[in-house]
């Protein structure tokens, strides 16, 4: 007998694919029994049914990616014992091949990090790789990287097993029940309405409907930028002697994965130049569907794929399959509470890795819903990271073709997306381009990465993990900042005006530091959650009694705005305004910065009149602008907040006045190297929501005694009471000037692995690669241990001697900043 759909539930999940069933399963594991899953057709009918079912690690470069992956792999291996429903998981092994020096170097960099986080990556010889995959032509392979525990599963079986487990925990699942609307009241989701007109009220609504998620979300004003694309795989006829336990092979050279399929071989493509599917919307009645293959477009890619397994040409083609998979603009999932609606959550945009990551994502989201905070770092996947620009039809059309190839091909540390660019440009863009800027992209912003001597030279000759053609130009920018002066366009920094009667109360509640200061003071502070984990690190500047300016990096724009708005009390009067588009931020820094600024301003800029961490309105030429005496590079200087209508004029004035002081442009590469010499932190890059200010060395910005306290105070108080932390963020400098550091390299203390680096750059002043990272020793990590320890960093499999420090290795007493 068919059970009737309920009228109430604690949590309603929209979508019965692997993600929806995983989320329901993990919610019941946390004790939430009143969970309802609504599937518009049949379970798995969207994209789950045609997934390849690869359970392989790929190249994972964050702790959260590793944890999400290993949870799924381990769960699929044991889930049948719990539910009685098989998942089809088989640990046939996973083999990645490196056929050029750059790929080999990348894999040697990432393999130790993955091993540290539970993924047993083994480097093997070309012969060993050929023995594992005898059907392939691996004559060009330099090395293989093999994970014996990885393998494959049956996507339908996985989903059915998760669904059975969810039902065993009390969840109810309803097929052929389409959701047409999310019900909203007072800015919160209160339930859903089905196609039959029935309303189901709920405390939480979770959108897990795959490639349909964007459309459903848009009806409720929720921004979910994802786009379906054609995804191909070919299955050959039976190949005699092909082992059922053939390892999964991944080849970035051909953009193809290979695995056994019912005695034949599957060739799955992640080709460059993929085709977006249904830009105007996914048909609501599309179920267990296929797309007519475009042989002409995919033919050349299949030819390359067959080049790795030429013997497969001797058998026929059983099936060329084309089906849709949804992708996000940056190839990371969309997960978490939506900024537009309270009590509404989302997990979608799996970028063709729904089976691979579905279990881990379901676990993360379930904890987020039940506990209020996620159990892993979610900065890269948080749904609040995008603006509405990325959801436009034109953006999805232009970015879509790049995504599959970008996901599967060769990776480099400094390579940006090439499509859908120029979403956000500073008004100084043309000036900077004429000055030789090479632009990278971050969160839609065109950022000057480095400057060439001429615009014609502003090109990357060849992306590499080693020194590139721009390295020496960047070094000159770095040295100018330390010796003379530099100008940086930092307009991408997110700026919010926070004003009103209760502005101080709101920001005090959020901030670990004391922001109830005199007008004209700049306060550096962290924001943390109830567990003491970072939610932001930023500056809060008080302009008047009731008005502040909050400044944070472009990667935290949406998250910071959401956190402020969500914490305004019902009776409070606070207005939060995003003023980023109207402000061009020009930074002037370096030993000669004061002399330059005095040439263009009549303001008193002496240290006594304009001390460090203060803000003043000053004149620059014809214009009155807000100037903050702060630094992110460790040098004397000012951040100038220029109304964009005056920015070009101010820029021209500064460049002309700066000639006699050796003023140079400087880009993001130089910002990174300068700030790492000073060991300055950056939330979203080297700090995340699982780290806390005490272990990160930012305890100086935590005021436990400030009136009224702050969110997370009790958690930080407990951490402080424990004394010297066992885990501490340290700065490292390689003693060998040749190797480069980027992040994820392992840290060794007295021969023992104790952590990994978060981010690295080249310290041109210090004379070697410099980085910051967390060391975990299991005992108090004292200053004496740090100083006396024998420290090493693993760089692509080779240990390099390093110096470690709790204090910045460059200007530890801040003499250059406060002069």
UniProtKB/TrEMBL annotation:
Q: Ranges for the FAD dependent oxidoreductase central domain?
A: 371-426
Domain of life where this protein originates: Bacteria
Q: Where is the GCVT N-terminal domain?
A: 428-706
- List residues of the FAD dependent oxidoreductase domain: 11-368
Q: Does the keyword Oxidoreductase apply?
A: yes
Query: Which residue positions does the secretion signal occupy?
Result: none
Ranges for domain Aminomethyltransferase C-terminal? 728-811
Q: Does the keyword Nuclease apply?
A: no
UniProt entry keywords in alphabetical sequence:
Oxidoreductase
Report the family membership: Belongs to the GcvT family.
Name the chain's protein. Answer: FAD-dependent oxidoreductase
């Amino acid at each position: 007998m068919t059970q009737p759909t309920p009228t109430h539930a604690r949590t309603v999940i929209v979508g019965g694919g692997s993600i929806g069933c995983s989320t329901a399963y993990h919610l019941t594991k946390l004790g939430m029994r009143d969970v309802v899953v609504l599937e518009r057709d049949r379970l798995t009918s969207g994209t789950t049914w045609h997934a390849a079912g690869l359970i392989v690690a790929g190249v994972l470069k964050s702790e959260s990616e590793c944890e999400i992956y290993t949870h799924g792999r381990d769960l699929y291996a044991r889930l049948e014992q719990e539910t009685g429903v098989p998942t089809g998981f088989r640990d046939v092994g996973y083999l990645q091949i490196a056929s050029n020096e750059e790929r080999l170097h990348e894999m040697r960099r990432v393999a130790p990090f993955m091993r540290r986080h539970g993924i047993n990556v083994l480097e093997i010889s070309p012969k060993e790789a050929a023995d594992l995959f005898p059907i392939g032509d691996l004559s060009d392979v330099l090395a293989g990287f093999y994970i014996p525990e990885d393998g494959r599963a049956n996507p339908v079986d996985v989903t059915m097993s998760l669904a059975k487990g969810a039902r065993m925990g009390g969840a109810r699942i309803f097929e052929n029940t389409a959701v047409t609307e999310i019900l909203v009241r007072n800015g919160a989701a209160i339930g859903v309405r089905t196609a039959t007109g029935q309303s189901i009220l709920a405390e939480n609504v979770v959108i897990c409907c795959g490639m349909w998620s964007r459309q459903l979300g848009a009806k409720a004003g929720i921004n979910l930028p994802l786009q379906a694309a054609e995804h191909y795989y070919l299955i050959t006829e039976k190949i005699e002697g092909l082992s059922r336990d053939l390892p999964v092979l991944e080849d970035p050279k051909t953009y193809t994965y290979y695995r056994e399929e019912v005695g034949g071989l599957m060739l799955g493509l992640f080709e460059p130049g993929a085709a977006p599917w249904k830009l105007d919307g996914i048909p609501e009645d599309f179920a267990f569907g296929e797309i007519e293959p475009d042989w002409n477009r995919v033919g050349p890619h299949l030819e390359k794929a067959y080049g790795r397994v030429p013997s497969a040409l001797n058998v026929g083609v059983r099936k060329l399959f084309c089906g849709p998979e949804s992708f996000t603009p940056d190839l990371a999932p969309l997960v978490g509470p939506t900024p537009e609606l309270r009590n509404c959550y989302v997990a979608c945009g799996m970028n063709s890795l729904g089976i691979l990551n579905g279990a881990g994502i379901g676990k993360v989201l379930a904890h987020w819903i039940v506990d209020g905070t996620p159990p892993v770092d979610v900065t890269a996947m948080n749904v609040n990271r995008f603006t509405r620009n990325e959801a436009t039809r034109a953006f999805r059309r232009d970015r879509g073709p790049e995504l599959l190839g970008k996901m599967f091909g060769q990776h480099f540390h400094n390579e940006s997306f090439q499509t859908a660019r120029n979403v956000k440009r500073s008004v100084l863009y043309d000036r900077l381009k004429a000055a030789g800027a090479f632009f990278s992209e971050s969160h839609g912003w065109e950022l000057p990465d480095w400057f060439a001597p001429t615009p014609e030279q502003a090109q990357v000759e060849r992306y590499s993990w080693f020194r590139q053609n721009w390295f020496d130009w960047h070094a000159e920018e770095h040295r100018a900042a330390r010796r003379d002066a530099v100008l940086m366009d930092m307009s991408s920094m997110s700026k919010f005006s926070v004003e009103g009667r209760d502005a101080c109360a709101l920001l005090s509640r959020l901030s670990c530091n004391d922001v109830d200061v005199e007008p004209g003071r700049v306060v550096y502070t962290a924001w943390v959650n109830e567990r003491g984990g970072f939610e932001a690190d930023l500056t809060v500047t008080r302009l008047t009694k009731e008005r502040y300016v909050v400044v944070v990096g472009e990667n935290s724009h949406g998250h910071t705005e959401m956190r402020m708005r969500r914490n305004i009390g019902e009776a409070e009067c606070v207005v939060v305004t995003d003023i980023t588009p109207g402000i061009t931020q020009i930074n002037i820094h370096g030993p000669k910065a004061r002399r330059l600024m005095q040439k263009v301003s009549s303001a008193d800029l002496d240290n006594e009149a304009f001390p460090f961490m203060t803000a003043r309105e000053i004149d620059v030429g014809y214009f009155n602008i807000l100037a903050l005496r702060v630094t992110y590079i460790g040098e004397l200087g000012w951040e100038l907040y220029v109304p964009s209508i005056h920015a070009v004029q101010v820029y021209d004035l500064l460049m002309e006045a700066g000639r006699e002081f050796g003023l140079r442009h400087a880009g993001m590469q130089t910002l990174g190297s300068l700030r790492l010499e000073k060991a300055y932190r950056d939330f979203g890059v080297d700090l995340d929501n699982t780290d806390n200010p005490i272990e990160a060395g930012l305890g100086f910005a935590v005021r436990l005694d400030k009136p009224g306290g702050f969110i997370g105070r009790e958690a930080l108080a407990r951490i402080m009471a424990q004394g010297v932390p066992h885990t501490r963020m340290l700065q490292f400098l390689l003693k060998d000037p040749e190797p480069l550091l980027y992040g994820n390299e392992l840290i060794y203390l007295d021969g023992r692995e104790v952590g990994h680096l978060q981010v690295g750059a080249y310290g041109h002043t210090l004379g070697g690669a410099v980085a910051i990272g967390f060391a975990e020793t299991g005992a108090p990590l004292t200053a004496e241990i740090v100083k006396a320890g024998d420290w090493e960093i693993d760089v692509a499999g080779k240990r390099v001697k390093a110096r470690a420090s709790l204090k910045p290795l460059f200007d530890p007493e801040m003499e250059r900043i406060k002069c």
